[in-house]
Amino acid sequence: MIRNSYFINIIRFVLLILVQVLVFNKLNFFGYINPMVYILFLYWYPIKEKRQLFLLLSFLLGFLIDLFSDTVAIHAAATVTIAYLRPTIMRFCFGVNYEFQNFKLTNTTRAQQITFLTLLIIIHHLVFFTLEIFSFENTLLILQKVLTISIATLILCLLLSSLFSVKKE
Amino acid sequence: MRQIINFILRYKNFLLYLFLLIISLALTVQSHSYHRSKYFNSSNWLTGNIYETTSNITTYFGLGEENKKLVEENKRLRNLLFNQKKEDSMQLDTTNITYRVLASQVIKNSYSLPRNYITIKKGSADGIKPDMGVITANGILGIVENTSKNFATVQSILNTKSRINAKIKNTNHYGSLVWDTKDYNTVQLADVERLVPIKIGDTIVTGASSSIFPENIPIGIIKNFDLNNSQSSYSIDIKLFNNMAAVRSIYIIENVQREEIIELEAKTNNDSQ
């Protein structure tokens, strides 16, 4: 069971990177909208795993995406930030429930899942575009990009997650 | 001592986060200054090969279109060749050549970020070096920034770090080509004085004071212009000849005399100090 979960996470890690850089980075919807679906890795990652490993994996994930898209380390910074904040966000979304031993993402309501995903995406994009544009003169541009691309990312993440969701038994 | 260890143990997650964040911020800030992202770019072995494989597959879908473009370019060049009115003793002696041209293909293109890079299929093994100019059949594309053995990354003109010397065709009025990140088919020409007569539709080409590009490579036409805030120079919008979203075949230009020029300039600078 445990080995199985490692295996699934490794497959997810590789596939999400490839899908991100080979498909979604080339989308350029309206000229600039490229959804960042690799955030799903952090959404799906098991809750009970060690946090240090999770932080390191998230950094690696972001950094590999950076290598492919020539953005040095912006994805890495944004991803590591949401990886660190994930427990806080989960407590906010799921209440104290999530600290129980038998807590599972699939047991929560749809609304809770969507809030969780939305918060992850918005924080990630906020850090990402602030670093990418890197000037306070363009605050409006940053907000505009965060808003539009967050919506695109959210829609695609929801579609992908319902496509590959684990069936309830 | 014990307290310090306890502190570290208690905040180990936060410290790890801080550590990783600082690494990424340091790399990012460093890359904002010129030519630092030497190792972390898509010209490396892993990303280069993945991009090459996928581009090999996707190229098949555009072969017809690409062929048409190349025939069109050949037609234009032949027209130039047949109508040349010079004496027919063409110089083929390689020692007199200033610019050497190499051909290659784009394997990864991006145009939606503020700092865009293009990855191409040739690297240091084929003689590509940083600071070579890259053009397409239609116009200018960028400058080689990093190379690995088989791949190279090109700093696109759609990059806020890019500043290329450009001029208005058939005049000697220069400016520098920059990009305001808004539209990927429009770039800006800055530092053109207000006394210069310009009008919409004028052609912009590369200038002579660059040691990277030859003079008179087409860039685009003036879309509209306005005086800037200080009323001393124009800010000019240029519509590019290139369709930056669909670049495929490219040419890399090597200026054989570039090293000599740079050496001379460095020497002059040293002497004058």
UniProtKB/TrEMBL annotation, chain A:
Extract one GO cellular component term from the record.
plasma membrane
Its main localization is membrane
The subcellular location is: Cell membrane
Which keywords accompany this UniProt record?
Cell membrane, Cell shape, Membrane, Transmembrane, Transmembrane helix
Transmembrane segments in this chain: where?
Answer: 6-24, 29-47, 53-85, 114-134, 146-166
Q: How does it sit in the membrane?
A: Multi-pass membrane protein
Q: Which GO terms describe its biological process?
A: regulation of cell shape
Source superkingdom: Bacteria
Which protein family is it in? Belongs to the MreD family.
Protein name as annotated? Rod shape-determining protein MreD
Please give the organism: Arenibacter echinorum
- Which taxonomic lineage is given here? Bacteria, Pseudomonadati, Bacteroidota, Flavobacteriia, Flavobacteriales
TrEMBL record, chain B:
| Rod shape-determining protein MreC beta-barrel core domain: residues covered | 106-254
How is this protein annotated for GO cellular component?
Answer: plasma membrane
Q: Which keywords label this protein?
A: Cell shape
Tell me where the transmembrane regions lie.
none
GO BP annotations of the record are: regulation of cell shape
- Please give the superkingdom of this protein's source: Bacteria
Which family does the record claim for this protein? Belongs to the MreC family.
Protein name according to UniProt = Cell shape-determining protein MreC
Source organism per entry reads Arenibacter echinorum
